[in-house]
Structure formats: C-alpha cells, structure tokens
Amino acid sequence: MTRLSRTTLVIALAAATLLLAVDLATIAEAAEIKKPAPAPGAIDASRAKPAPQPATGDASAPQSTKIPPSFPKTVDEAKAEAEAAKKPADKWTDAEIADAKARCAVILHRIHAVTIPHEPIKDGACGAPAPVELVSIGQNPEVALSPPAIVRCDLAETLVNWLENDLQPLAKKHLKSAIIKIETMSSYDCRNAYGRKTTRLSEHGLANAVDIGGFVMASAKTAYVLDDWGTPQREILANIAAEKAEAEKRAAEQAATGKDAQVNLATGQGTTPTAAPATTVATTPGSPAAGISRSTIIEGVPKLPVTLPGAKSRTNTTAVSIAEPDRLGGPTLHLHNAARQKSSDKTLIAMRTGDSADHDLPARIFLHEAHAAACRIFGTTLGPEANADHRNHFHVDMAPRTVTKICD
C-alpha cells in the first residue's frame, strides 16, 4: 500500500470516530432532556462527590456521629423524658452496695455495737444500700435498744460515741447508775418530715435518724422525756401570755366600770329619789373631804395569783403575786438562755421547767444535759422545746449541715 493510501485511510477513520462521538453526545443529551428534574433542594446522587474515607488505623479521623431525628420532640415527650431523669433508680447498683458494705465493715470494727446485716432498702427516694439492725451499743454494760433500730452505720457510730462519752457519765453523775436500755420509738420509716404530705423527705426515710423516748438504769430508775423533761419553756410562755391577757382584760373592765360610775355621779344620772344613797363616811373639820368610797384604776387592782404550769411546792401550787397593772406578765424570763448554757445548775433547771421539787431534778437534769450533748455531735437534735410533735421524745439524725447544727 502506498503512502497516499495509508494517509487516506487514517483520515477516514478519524472522521468516522468524530461522527460516532457526535452521535453519542446527541443521544446522551436527548436522554438528559427526558429525565425528570430533581425536587428543589434535592441532591443529584449521580453528580454528588463521594465523601473521602479515612485511612484504616488513622486515629485522627473523626468518629461517626449520631444523626439527629428528622422531627423535634413534642412537649409531652420532653416532659416524659425529664420526669424519667428525675425518678430515682428502682434499686441500688452493685457498686453502691459494695462501697456501702465496705465502709460499714470499717465502722463496725472500731465501735462497740451488736448489729445484724439488713438487706438493701430501696423504695423510691427512701432507703439505704447497706443498713444494719442495731441491737445494742456500748460495753460494760451493754446497752440494748428496744426495739432494735434500722440505721446506717454512720448513725450507729455516732450513737455509740454519744452513749460512751456523754450519756453514761451523766447517768452515773445524776442518777447514780449506768444505763442498760434505750427505748426507741422510730428508726427507718419512708415518710416526710413530721409525717406530713407537703414537707421534705425525713431523715427517717434514709435510715439516718432515730427517735428516743427514754432511758432505763441498772438501778431500775428511769428518765422518760415525756414524764421527766418538765414543762417546755414555750408552754410556760404561752400560759403566762394567756394569764397576762386575762388580767389586762379584767383591769380594763374594772376601769371602764369606775369611769361610768364617775360620769353618772357627775351628771346626776342613774339615781332615783327613793334610791338608797351611796355608801358614805362621816366628815369632820380638819379631816380630808370624805365622800363616796369607790374603787378606781388609780387605787390599783387586786393582786392576781398566777400559777406557772407544772409548778410544784408543798401545796402543789406556786403563785406569783402581781400588784400593779404595768407589771403584769409574770416573772422575768431571762433565765431561759442561762439554763441552756449552764444546765448543771439545779436552780436554773428548776426555774426553767417550773418545778423546784428536789426529787424530780436528777432525771430532769440528766435529760437536759443529754440533749445538750446530742446537739454537739448530731446534725439535728429535737426535743420538747422544738414543738408539740417532739414533746415525748428526742429526735437525732445525721443530716449534713453546712452552717450550723439544728438544736431545739
């Protein structure tokens, strides 16, 4: 084949190739026209560039993220999720129980106490991961808790310290005998404070509190909060205030009666010609003018006996005479704070509680000093001075207090 023929053949092949390419482009363009247009905002998958894949083993490669839901949560769904987050777990975790038991073992090893392990308690917000049944505390003598109390081990330790460092020395000092029994009234109880619906959760609901009604000595002597504390200061103040209000009312009525009598005499009203004359006394020259004898507020009011609640004497009555209206209200009450600060002074204790009978003082002084000692070591100490709910027992608990302990 000649050179000319080869050249012609190459040109012909090139022309054919060009025509084929043009035909293919025309066909593709026609197909693109017939293809439906994508929706606004949609991404054409055929033209999208694939995301670069990180190399295997590349630690710096970003981790895959969770794709957010297509639609936001409804209000009800959000509320339900928030409530579920607030709701306490139905049971303690194994880790929580193990940690609590380990701590409890350390505490029980260093104190004098007889305990029985109790199953973990979980009732909503109430309970404890490793409570114990506290049977007795102390030694020589061993002091029984009747009935045994369900408490956390931290509370058990504080009770032992209170007994050994304060209660036993006080009992031997004032009652001449050691304590052999503590009568309990309540320990673990899933309830709010004071047993009411609107108050916060009680420390009793956390096995972190115990109520004590009284103490029994080896000599058979007893010291019960209800019987031996004495009349609470708040009750004494309330009764004195009531006595004062009643006395002021009578004085005001008497003053009003005297004033009305004076007005009637000055105007001549209220008398009749046949009415008997008012009582008079004879008048003699040189003596003060005598006239109608009457009682007015200026002359004072009769002395009023005020009996302090719980007061005793040889006749079981202690009276304070009040002679003038401006001195109504009973004796000075500044001894209230002094009795707290110096509770060992029998006179102050007797005056505070309204009882001066010597045979009542040992148990009374013991209880007041026991309460004061509890205030130093427990987070909360409540007794008869707090309110009527604690008239018959001491409440002690281990609630953490960031500023000061509660002592009433």
User: Uncertain runs with pLDDT below 50, 5 residues or more?
Assistant: 55-59, 275-351
| Average pLDDT for all residues | 75
Helix content: 25-40%
Number of strands: 13
* Order of helix and strand elements from N to C terminus: HHHEEEEEHEEEHHEEHHHEEE
Overall 3D shape: elongated
Please, how many helices?
9
Largest sheet: 9 strands, mixed
Brief descriptors of the model:
nine-stranded mixed sheet, elongated, 38% helix, alpha+beta, two-stranded antiparallel ribbon
Q: Could you characterize what this model shows?
A:
Helix content is 38%, strand content 15%. It is of the alpha+beta class and 408 residues long. Among the domains are: 94-230 and 362-407, no CATH class; 231-252 and 301-354, no CATH class. The strands form 3 sheets. Strands 1, 4, 5, 6, 7, 8, 11, 12 and 13 form a 9-stranded mixed β-sheet that branches. The protein has a two-stranded antiparallel ribbon with strand order 2-3. A hairpin with a 4-residue loop joins strand 7 (209-217) and strand 8 (222-224). Helix 3 (94-110) packs parallel to helix 4 (153-174). The N and C termini lie far apart (127 Å).
Task: Briefly characterize the structure.
The chain is built from nine helices and 13 strands. β7 and β8 form a beta hairpin.
